[in-house]
Structures are given as structure tokens and as C-alpha cells.
Write a structure and sequence with these properties.
- By secondary structure, the chain is an alpha/beta fold.
- 38% of the residues lie in helices and 18% in strands.
- The chain is built from 9 helices and 11 strands.
- Strand 6, helix 3 and strand 7 form a beta-alpha-beta unit.
- Helix 5 packs across helix 6.
């Protein structure tokens, strides 16, 4: 059974919610890659809560991470769930994807999956040298000395770099504390793992980052045994884009990459994005 954000109630005792691709606030494309919207996912989780037929939520995660805010929004919705939530990490549950998985009641990961990567980054392309080569100048007019911090048209000052690093360190600490609380680990234990390194599923199991190794069949068997279901009938939640949305994404892809670093998310009206 497939549930669109625009459909009515459907039947199924396990809500299957795919988290596929980079995590964003609104599903905007990132380098033409597949993305998923926190707005949609939070709506799916809330709908599953209201559906009396749904007994368990299964998050099928294949995500390298994404927006820090969007990841936190989804993880918060998972933690608020009054119904049990199981996370299945397939190829990747890294960074923001792992933050979300850690909020679930139980995590199953493929033994070779990319898991963890507890870190934060923010980057962008800086054009000031190229502008000098072409005799192009940046006329700086600001009210507030740090207003254009992170603009690609000038180099970061030492002061600006320190300010930005402090922001990243604070978000990193939030990430560490959330994982520690979600996984019943000591903060110091997670800090030792929070170098940004990713772990294979088999390594993540030894480190306490996941509960078991396996695939979707293993997840189904766990759900049946743990929650007393004779069989699993999936109610699949997915966003079905309309024609105008598809058309918009085609055209936006031509301009989205301009000025964006490989590790960054360009937020509208903001020169610098933060991602997990």
C-alpha cells in the first residue's frame, strides 16, 4: 500500500517510511542527487501515529546525512512517537541519517553499511582569487561587521573563522549529546567516536551504535517477535511530486550548483549552510 502526502487513510499494520537521499528541509535538489524533506517525513510520522491500524513504524534509511536542522526535526518526531519505531540502515545511515536512526527504539544495520559519521561540516567555494584574476571587485556594504561572514566573494578573516568554528563545535556537541541520550551511552563514549569517521555496520554493533545486523527480512522478523504481529503488512509512505514540482526541480538543477562546495548546503538568503 502506498500513501502519498495527499492521499487519505490507508490500511497496514507497519508504517514503512523510507528516508532515501540527502536530508533537507523542503526536499530541494542537491547537486541533482536524491533528497528527502523533513517536512514530509515529520508529516508521515505524525500520520502514522493517528492511524489506528499502524502498530509499528519502520524507518528504512539510506542517507548520507544533510541539514542539521532537518535531521533534528525528524529525530524529534521519532522520539515523540507513542508507537515503537525500528530503524533499518541499508547502505548508509551516516551523520544526519544516523542521528535519526539513533532516536528509534531499535536499530538494525547491514553488516557492510556506512554508519555513524558523527560530525558536522560547513564549506563553500571562495571566489576572491578568481575575481582578482578577472579584475572583478567586491564592494562591501554592511551594517554589522559580521553580516557577510561566509560570502564566497571574500576570504574569511581569522575572527570570522573562529566564530564559525564555535558554531560548528556547538552543533557537534548537540549531536553527541543526542546520540548519547538516545543510545544510553555516556557522553564521553560518544565523544571518542565523534571524529566524523564512519563505521561499517559490524563495527557499529561492537561500539553500541546499532542493536543488530541484518536486512529487511530480519527487521520484519524482529517486529513480529517483539510486537506480537502474526504478519507484517506495510503501509508505505512516500511523497508523490506533482507536475509543477517536477518541472521546477528540472530547471532549478541548472543553477543550484553554482557557487556550492561539495560539502555544503546553500540555504536561500544565507551564504553559508551547515550539514551533518
Amino acid at each position: 500500500v502506498v500513501f502519498s502526502l495527499f492521499d487519505g487513510p490507508q490500511l497496514g499494520n507497519v508504517a514503512l517510511i523510507p528516508i532515501e537521499g540527502a536530508i533537507t528541509g523542503n526536499g530541494d535538489q542537491e547537486f541533482g542527487a536524491l533528497t528527502v524533506s523533513s517536512k514530509d517525513l515529520v508529516g508521515f510520522i505524525e500520520d502514522a501515529q493517528d492511524n489506528l491500524q499502524v502498530k509499528v513504524l519502520l524507518l528504512e534509511i539510506n542517507s548520507p546525512g544533510g541539514s542539521a536542522v532537518a535531521s533534528d526535526e525528524i529525530a524529534s518526531a521519532v522520539k515523540k512517537s507513542k508507537k515503537p519505531v525500528v530503524a533499518l540502515i541499508r547502505e548508509a545511515g551516516a551523520s544526519g541519517g544516523y542521528w535519526i536512526a539513533s532516536a528509534a527504539d531499535y536499530i538494525i544495520a547491514n553488516r557492510m553499511s556506512i554508519t555513524g559519521s558523527i560530525g558536522v561540516l560547513s564549506s563553500y567555494l571562495e571566489f576572491s582569487g578568481l575575481m582578482e584574476d578577472y579584475n572583478v571587485s567586491y564592494e562591501r556594504l554592511v551594517a554589522g561587521e559580521n553580516k557577510d561572514m561566509g560570502t564566497p566573494f571574500k576570504k574569511l578573516t581569522d575572527k570570522e573563522r573562529i566564530i564559525l568554528q564555535k558554531k560548528l563545535d556547538k552543533i557537534h556537541q548537540f549531536f553527541i549529546e543526542e546520540v548519547a541520550a538516545n543510545r544510553n551511552l555516556e557522553v564521553s563514549e560518544v565523544e571518542d567516536l565523534a571524529t566524523g569517521e564512519f563505521f561499517l555496520g559490524v563495527e557499529a554493533l561492537d561500539l553500541g551504535l546499532v542493536d543488530a545486523l541484518g536486512d529487511k527480512d530480519a527487521a520484519e522478523e524482529f517486529i513480529k517477535q517483539k510486537y506480537g504481529l502474526e504478519r507484517v503488512d506495510y503501509l508505505v509512505y512516500e511523497h508523490k511530486p506533482g507536475f509543477l514540482e517536477l518541472l521546477s526541480s528540472i530547471f532549478s538543477d541548472f543553477s543550484f550548483k553554482i557557487g556550492e562546495g561539495m560539502g555544503s548546503i546553500f540555504l536561500r538568503r544565507q551564504p553559508l549552510g551547515v550539514r551533518l
